[in-house]
Amino acid sequence: MFILKAEIPAELADALEAHFCEEGLLSWGIEFAPNGPLFLKGFFESEAEADEGLAALRITFPALPAYFAGEQIEDREWQEAYKEFLKPWSNGRLHWVPAWERESYVVPEGHVALYLDAGMAFGTGSHETTRLMARRLMDFAQTRGDAYAQQRIIDAGCGSGILALSAVLLGAKSVYGFDQDPEAIRVSRENTLTNGIAPEAVSFAEAGIESGLEGRQADFMMANIQADILKIHAAGLFAAMAPHGTLALSGILSRELDEVREHFNFAATEAGITCRADSRIDGEWADLCLFL
Ligand SMILES: C[S@@+](CC[C@H](N)C(=O)[O-])C[C@H]1O[C@@H](n2cnc3c(N)ncnc32)[C@H](O)[C@@H]1O
């Protein structure tokens, strides 16, 4: 493993994070320290890959600092750090457990567990936005009660499949996830298999938002994708919603929330839809849940 690191000006952090999310650049991250300097870090297999990754990033962000420190670390050391970072998480009866803890993790009676290996896809369960979406999913399942099993659920930008597969574990029989990243679809299908999930309950497709939603209707849709992209596709997202459906959005920075809410209110009016909006904040991230 080769790590690149450089201190960056605070003004660059949000734009870089948004870019990583939008492009699915999982090898890059920002290290936030309270009141301290901000560091941009990149994780690569080799120094040559690190140079390539940095050159590509500089095309979009020419203002990146000229000097990056590089450090080679043992793969084993890296894996241990990764395992230390990723811990099981639960909300109500839903548990997300790293695959390597499968043997030792005890699932309480009546609860369900998804054993996850996100590989290179987004969706380990550690991100605030994924957790915000899971809470909305749990709320939806609870509100629909016995009818939940029959609800049509869509996970737009499914990443590792974490949300789609959670929907199935909670009892849904008609779940569909899509992502523009082929690696995400490969990982989602693998997670379906390794969790012994019935393949007829969930399907995954490699697709962008437009083609992914074509001919679809959702009673509940989760879209944890960057705010700018959600805004561009607002009309398409509404068009795929069934009457009285719930549209749960995340990938929204808290400071973007008012603007995103306004945008979706306007798009709803344009589409002749009335809906109630609700939001939750987790750290610097927010969700926007629209009840049609
Ligand atoms: C923030 S990740 C969310 C992954 C997972 N759903 C979760 O909540 O952890 C966003 C995902 O959306 C995908 N994505 C971004 N733009 C997209 C688009 N226009 N169409 C389809 N997928 C997109 C990315 O490839 C990425 O896997």
UniProtKB/TrEMBL annotation:
Keyword Transferase found: yes
Catalyzed chemical reaction(s): L-lysyl-[protein] + 3 S-adenosyl-L-methionine = N(6),N(6),N(6)-trimethyl-L-lysyl-[protein] + 3 S-adenosyl-L-homocysteine + 3 H(+)
Enzyme Commission number: 2.1.1.-
Residues reported in the UniProt entry to bind S-adenosyl-L-methionine: 130, 157, 179, 224
A GO term from the CC aspect: cytoplasm
SUPFAM superfamilies, sorted: S-adenosyl-L-methionine-dependent methyltransferases (SSF53335)
GO BP of this protein: methylation
Annotated localization: Cytoplasm
InterPro entries for this protein: Ribosomal_L11_MeTrfase_PrmA (IPR050078), Ribosomal_PrmA_MeTrfase (IPR004498), SAM-dependent_MTases_sf (IPR029063)
Family matches, as Pfam families: PrmA (PF06325)
Protein keywords: Cytoplasm, Methyltransferase, Ribonucleoprotein, Ribosomal protein, S-adenosyl-L-methionine, Transferase
Main EC class the enzyme belongs to: transferase
One MF annotation (Gene Ontology) recorded for this entry: protein methyltransferase activity
CDD domains attached to this UniProt entry: AdoMet_MTases
Chief localization: cytoplasm
Role played: Methylates ribosomal protein L11.
PANTHER family in UniProt: ELECTRON TRANSFER FLAVOPROTEIN BETA SUBUNIT LYSINE METHYLTRANSFERASE (PTHR43648)
Family: Belongs to the methyltransferase superfamily. PrmA family.
Name under which the protein is recorded: Ribosomal protein L11 methyltransferase
Provenance organism: Ruficoccus amylovorans
Annotated gene: prmA
